[in-house]
Amino acid sequence: MAAVTSLSFSALTQSSFPSARNLGSNSDGLRFRTSFSLHYGGFRSSSSSPRLVVHCMSSSSSELATVADTKLNFLKAYKRPIPSVYNTVLQELIVQQHLMRYKRTYRYDPVFALGFVTVYDQLMDGYPSDEDRDAIFKAYVNALKEDPEQYRTDAKNLEEWARAQSSSSLIEFPSKEGEVEGILKDIAERAGGKGSFSYSRFFAVGLFRILELANATEPTVLEKLCAALNIEKRSVDKDLDVYRNLLSKLVQAKELLKEYVAREKKKREERVGTQKANEAIASCLGEPQSMGL
After folding, report:
1. How far apart are the C-alpha atoms of 89 and 87, rounded to whole Å?
2. Phi, psi of 143 (to 5 degrees)
3. Fewer CB within 10 Å: C terminus or N terminus of the chain?
4. Alpha helices, DSSP H, located in the chain
5. Does residue 50 contact residue 179 with C-beta atoms inside 8 Å?
6. In this model, does residue 19 exceed pLDDT 60?
7. Is the predicted pLDDT of residue 98 greater than 60, yes or no?
8. How many Å is the Cα radius of gyration of the chain?
9. Vertex 217, ends 184 and 211: CA angle to 5°?
10. C-alpha angle with apex 13: 159 to 144, nearest 5 degrees?
11. Average pLDDT, integer, range 109-119
């Protein structure tokens, strides 16, 4: 099992990275590409899951939107400028998620929603304004013609369930009854070949988030849970490594942005100080004339 499976999400952001190059004269130097590509699978609601409402969100041909449509919807919904370090990642994610969203087999999945919410919150951690961060989230999900409140609600419910679990109870879901247990059983059934299921990296992050909240960080727990869900553990390990690397790059970019902002602020203060000094000198030199001397 990859070492990442024994780390908390907060620890993932502490991974080391190469020393950064000089930022240059503008923040465009902060741009970097993400490798968090998405491959999404369908989901069927379980009759035993009345609280975690699962909506089928596949689109008919008349509802199909282009990538340009989705990006335009986002820009219309949120018109304020977004710092490059955040905007670069958001633009790539929304394009990738658009391609997933409008696949004919697409179905909404609460575990997937938890994964996306986790990724978003980690990526946007430290954003200058909490209000703007929430507004961007709503604009992003609405641009995909989905419900941001549904994402948040399902993610919260899964988190609450996970906090009440233990290492043993997580892998015993096939023999238990309950809302989330029903969802996991349905996933296992479809992933086992009895239905449509396509693995995604957001699903992997959602799964790991559940393990973290249950404090089930032992390597064997993820291995047994993947086996119970009929999901290949190797893919989960690989995708969590990708996520860790993405967060590492973001930490680096945020540090560069902080340094850039501080440097530009210092330059502005120096310019203002020089201007005031020049004005004071000019004022002093002009006093004798004004006094008629």
Report:
1. 5
2. -65, -25
3. C
4. 9-12, 67-77, 84-101, 110-123, 130-143, 148-163, 167-171, 179-189, 201-213, 219-229, 233-290
5. yes
6. no
7. yes
8. 25
9. 25
10. 55
11. 91
- Whole-angstrom distance, CA of residue 132 vs CA of residue 54: 28
CA–CA gap between residue 45 and residue 59 (Å, rounded): 17
Whole-angstrom CA distances from 87 to 53, 72, 124 are 31, 14, 10
Q: How far apart are CA 116 and CA 231, in angstroms?
A: 19
Cα gap 116→129, rounded to integer Å: 20
CB-CB contact of 34 with 246 (8 Å): yes
Nearest to 46 by CA among 149, 210, 182, 150: 182
Question: Which residues have a Cβ under 8 Å from the Cβ of 288 and sit 6 or more positions away?
Answer: none
* Cα separation, 186 vs 180, whole angstroms: 10
Beta-carbon contacts of residue 63 (< 8 Å; ≥ 6 apart): 145
User: For residues 201 and 112, is the Cβ–Cβ distance under 8 A?
Assistant: no
- At residue 247 the predicted structure's pLDDT band, cuts being 50, 70 and 90, is confident
Contact, 203 vs 197, CB < 8 A? no
Which of helix, strand or coil describes residue 39?
coil
Q: In angstroms, rounded to a whole number, what is the distance separating the alpha carbons of residues 230 and 40?
A: 16
Q: Phi and psi (nearest 5°) for 127? A: -60, 140
C-alpha–C-alpha distance, residues 40 and 35, integer Å? 15
Residue listed under structure tokens 């609450």: 160
* Amino acid found at 94: I
